[in-house]
Hints:
With 346 residues, this protein is an alpha/beta fold. It has helices at 28-37, 50-55, 58-62, 80-92, 107-111, 122-135, 153-166, 197-206, 221-227, 238-242, 250-255, 264-280, 285-289, 302-312, 320-328, 335-340, 342-345, and strands at 17-19, 43-49, 71-76, 97-102, 140-144, 171-175, 211-215, 233-236.
Amino acid sequence: MLSPMPPETRDFNPWRFSVAPMMDWTDRHDRFFLRLISRRARLYTEMLTTGAIRFGDRRRLLAYDPAEQPLGLQVGGSQPAELAECARIAESLGYSEVNLNCGCPSERVQAGRFGARLMAEPDLVARSVAAMAAAVAIPVTIKSRIAIDDLEPWPTLSGFVARIADAGCRTFIVHARKAWLDGLSPKENRDVPPLDYAMVHRLKAECPGLTIVINGGLANLDAAEGQLRHVDGVMLGRAAYGNPYLLAEVDRRFFADPTTPPSRHQVIERLIPYVERERRLGTPLKHIARHLLGLFQGRPGARLFRRHLAENAHLSDAGVEVVRQAAELAAPDDIAMINHGFRSVA
Ligand SMILES: Cc1cc2nc3c(=O)[nH]c(=O)nc-3n(C[C@H](O)[C@H](O)[C@H](O)COP(=O)(O)O)c2cc1C
């Protein structure tokens, strides 16, 4: 179904543009949908704990469609041997990367001594990364904050990265704000601590041999592209989820891939066989439809599209017709804009 990559686009670092791991949001249905819009954006699973990966229902938790690649598995944990086992499982299932979560501030995560709390334990993270890297050939990467609580940001971040780079990690994704483990909810922790992009730029300047990816508050592709003057890659979370068609420009702008992206209606058409397959397997339509709500954002009819899905997708016998009917309520894309590059005619 997907045409081969043009040869000139193969050399970009694979972390140049990615969509952030987001619990409850970037599930396999969302990733399949996003992949229809961008062939090149790197995608991540939601965070899975080592316990879930080792003892949970793997077919349910870890299954993905090959079309979702390149796809990284994000793991939460802090026991080196368990993390190494999870890395092995990720590799055996064909994931392109295993990413260790050192940035999540939720209480559940803190109780387990992992997530953002690990920023205060660089030696433990280094041992974990060393064990994981020894177990697999796929890249082992880190997603962190710049610091936690009242730790001084630059010494914390630079010390953390240096220690873990020594253990074999080459790629660091940094959500460019602190996490406050006491007093802020996970949601507040994504907005309240101020962003400090300059600190992540400094990290790249001082560690030119590492791949540094910046994350946090990037609202659109102009903001993201501007970051590439300072770092190797950008990761977008909420902006990509809320306005998924923003990804239509990613392959051309970030990977010099000249392939014309599908229009929004073509995305829906290409999603239909997937929806049919999933419905046959018993997946309720609402599990897929909830990720589509932002597809027509900014287009006439976007509200009707959203409303039709919201009012009908939860019905037990709802099938592809609900998605088709919703799409018929939204205006077609401007084909000239898609064919000629969004910026040149915008
Ligand atoms: C609903 C939601 C769930 C998230 N779950 C995870 C997660 O499982 N693992 C993780 O590393 N970050 C998680 N995050 C944080 C994002 O990966 C990202 O770091 C954060 O949203 C900042 O990027 P943004 O401003 O582009 O959204 C989550 C964010 C949201 C909004």
